[in-house]
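hey
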């Protein structure tokens, strides 16, 4: 009896779904897949890995574009409103945050609300350095509007810590399953596989950085605070959270002293921002330069084709800079 009752509606639904898929394919280019908009690469990667063939992912930040100060085109803003699900990171891209708030899309996933954020943002004034376990009580702040990204105290670069990124992956998996319950099993399976790979990456960093001779590294923009803290390293940033800001003379003087005191070997720069300041500082101090990639976008210049490959590149760069054997 149960079988008979189940079969009829299932057949009817299957027919209906097929019809819908055909009729909407021409109109919107959405062939029955869940239409997901992701604010920038790390969010896009999660949606693609977890959604697989059931999602059609659009990234708002084009490859090679620095994401922090992204402005959306009117067309992008319009398309945003047609998303089934939006995955973003509140506090990183103020213009995107505004557009999402006004998009009217109900299924929005804020990665910042899926893990814990900390304050690493004031290293640049030379008065405050990486502070270890300085939790900002973010749990209480979830859902409340964040201040302007440039002046915000919460560091948005959570994806560079494999443990936090895995927490975000779990939340994205749940959100996709909620929006598209028919494919819940696949989303769960893909989430589990991704989390397992992130766990392995975390172990690679732990093992790879174990026998090192120094802890301190200098970067151009303060993207690696969470990664540094996870593995007991100290990040000293030339610039702040915003990679385009100019360092003060006082900050440069502090870095000169610090590089000598802490046995710093390398000044890191990145692929999407200017390397001018890093090269100047390294030149003055006789240090090496190398790339440490904040994975805010993947381009031909990236040291790999996806998050995992570039993170392994970052690990090798850190091992070399910190004298790990
Ligand atoms: Zn950044």
């Amino acid at each position: 009896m149960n079988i008979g009752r189940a079969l009829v509606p299932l057949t009817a639904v299957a027919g209906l779904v097929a019809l819908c898929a055909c009729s909407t394919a021409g109109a919107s280019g959405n062939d029955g897949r869940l239409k997901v908009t992701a604010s920038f690469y790390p969010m896009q990667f999660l949606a693609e890995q977890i959604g697989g063939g059931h999602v059609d992912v659009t990234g708002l930040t084009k490859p090679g574009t620095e994401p922090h100060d992204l402005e959306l085109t009117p067309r992008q803003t319009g398309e945003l409103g047609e998303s089934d699900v939006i995955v973003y990171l509140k506090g990183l891209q103020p213009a995107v945050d505004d557009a999402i708030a006004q998009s009217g899309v109900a299924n929005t996933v804020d990665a910042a609300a899926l893990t814990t954020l900390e304050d690493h943002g004031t290293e640049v004034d030379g008065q405050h350095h990486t502070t270890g376990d300085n939790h900002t009580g973010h749990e209480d702040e979830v859902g409340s509007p964040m201040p302007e990204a440039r002046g915000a105290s919460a560091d948005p670069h959570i994806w560079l810590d494999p443990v936090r990124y895995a927490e975000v992956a779990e939340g994205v998996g749940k959100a996709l399953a909620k929006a598209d319950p028919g494919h819940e099993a696949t989303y769960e399976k893909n989430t589990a596989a991704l989390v397992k790979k992130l766990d392995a990456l975390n172990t690679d960093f732990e093992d790879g950085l174990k026998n090192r001779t120094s802890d301190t590294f200098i970067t151009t923009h303060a993207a690696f605070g969470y990664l540094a803290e996870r593995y007991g390293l100290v990040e000293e940033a030339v610039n702040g959270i915003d990679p385009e800001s100019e360092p003060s003379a006082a900050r440069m003087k502090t870095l000169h002293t610090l590089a000598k005191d802490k046995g710093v070997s390398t000044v890191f720069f990145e692929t999407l921002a200017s390397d001018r300041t890093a090269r100047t500082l390294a030149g003055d101090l006789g240090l090496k330069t190398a790339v440490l990639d904040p994975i805010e976008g993947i381009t031909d210049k990236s040291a790999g084709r996806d998050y995992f490959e570039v993170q392994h590149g970052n690990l090798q760069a850190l091992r070399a800079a910190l004298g790990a054997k």
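The domain at 207-322 is CATH 3.40.50.1980 (Rossmann fold). The beta strands are 34-38, 55-59, 85-88, 108-110, 216-219, 234-237, 266-269, 288-291.
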